[in-house]
Amino acid sequence: MGIQDYMFLPFVKKIIMIHQNATLITLPGSGHVVNIDQPDLFNDHLLNFFLKD
What we know:
This protein has helices spanning 9-18, 34-37, 39-51. It has 53 residues and is mainly α.
């Protein structure tokens, strides 16, 4: 999620606090469309998530 996603980030932070196994990663220099704003960084985090044990 983009650190500049002012519309959805506060809501998502509340959801993350409820779900103990959830992880929130905020990427600098991006808003709501993280995969467009920071594609390489987004893909790195996504691949790491899929490759976790």
